[in-house]
User: Fold Olfactory receptor from Piliocolobus tephrosceles.
Amino acid sequence: MMNRLQKNHTLSSEFVILGFGDLAELQIFFFGLFLIMHLVTLAGHTTIVLLTLIDSCLQTPMYFFLRNLSTVEICYTLVIVPNMLANFLSRNQQMPFLGCALQMHFFVALGGAECFLLAVTAYDRFVAICKPLHYTLLITRTLCLQMLALACIGGFALSLTLTTLIFLLPFCQSHEINHFFCDIPAVLFLACSNTRANEIAVFLVCMLILLIPFLLILLSYGFIIAAVLRIRSAAGRSKAFSTCAGHLLVSLLHYGCAVFIYIRPKSCYAPDQDKIVSLIYTNVTPMLYPMIYSLRNKEVKGALGRLLHSHSP
Assistant:
């Protein structure tokens, strides 16, 4: 019996992504809807990257981190959404074993890098508001590059560890992933051995990627709110809050969805519920981020106006 299971595991070279096959009559509608959302997402983040690269008024640490957050978001969505769109046009999509592992690795790595960058951005805002006289001494270009490198290396290292632990498990029964991409809970659910150690590893990695950065963000904003409330000028308080409101809202959306999916045991896995939440944090929230960052930001709107004016006939 054991030999047969090992043989089945060895011969397994692909997974089947079920996606939304149970909603066949809505597949074309969903394809069009999420294609439009994907294009809007790419356009929004690309615009932020270009503006923060070419406009001289946006060459500050805050916009350096914003540019890199948008770059990570572009890569993050490209890892998931094109395959998801292809899945809408086919009933079941086959995914090679290695392709599934790579998709999970890059998804977790980029998501982890984004979590760390959000925490770094919160620290930048903390120094700008709570220690404005020391800002240029503390937040140097070298430090920005070092924090960016640490965020990316940390995300990719933790993801490699997690993905390796999951894909060393035997998948000797069903290879049908009830999801639209190779997400951690959906793949872990298929393993036919005792996954308790792997679940603990997932929990520990998620603690490092999600909870610790989120607690640091909350701590930073606790100090920021206390400092802002001490500002006597109403205009000054409004400017400080508007600078930070977008970042705080993005952090709450990102961490809220991620914590719901990943900080829980395998026994609580609910495929249909997970797919809906995953649709939100892989499609809806990335599309909203550029709007959140820019609609309340006069500097970004001013840079966009200057760019459009310079290219108008």
